[in-house]
């Protein structure tokens, strides 16, 4: 199958999963995870109907922005972000999915303040406590949300997770359900400050239909669209 056919197939599966869960398919954003893809592939995906692209690596993000590869689509940052590279991302993407520590949260807010803007962010939650992955522990996420609400340079839009690699279909459903419950709890607790929390970024190429069933509003899909990638060390799809 080609790229256009893959996009249509994934979109159809997302729509079917949404309807089965009693949801409006228009609530689900298909984010094309463009790690290792060249500008031609990105442009082709956008021409085929992709409206949001997600980059994992700051260097690739900067190169693709310079090449004008994202024309006609939003770009999000979905990979691990080091504090010393915040200045290359803040203000250049519509949404940062992977805010994984108080230190990073403060650095993003400070850079946004310097630029005179407000950066939309998601808090990354490490649901399984995996040492190999970054993110807030579930019990720490409410405090991080309160900190974000106090910082003028950021706007908290919701939560993101990368669950353990699934062995069987449905393995990650409990993690997606847990993130959904956490988002509901934080929204309830924050009251007026939670009005902008409308994003649940969860689900990748192997489990996006389960994520939609659990309430995801944004799935990050790479290999199911573009085909297998060369082996690399990131897990953000």
Order of helices and strands: HEHEHEEHEHEHEHEH
- CATH class bucket: Alpha Beta
Query: What is the total tally of β strands?
Result: 8
Shape call: globular
Straight-line distance between termini: 20 Å
Question: What would you say the CATH architecture is?
Answer: Alpha-Beta Barrel
Oligomer: single chain
Give the biggest beta sheet: 8 strands, parallel
Report the radius of gyration as a whole number of Å.
17 Å
Q: Give the overall pLDDT as a whole number.
A: 93
Helix content: 25-40%
The secondary-structure class comes to: alpha/beta
What does this entry show, briefly?
With 237 residues, this protein is of the alpha/beta class. The chain contains 8 helices and 8 strands, in the order αβαβαββαβαβαβαβα.
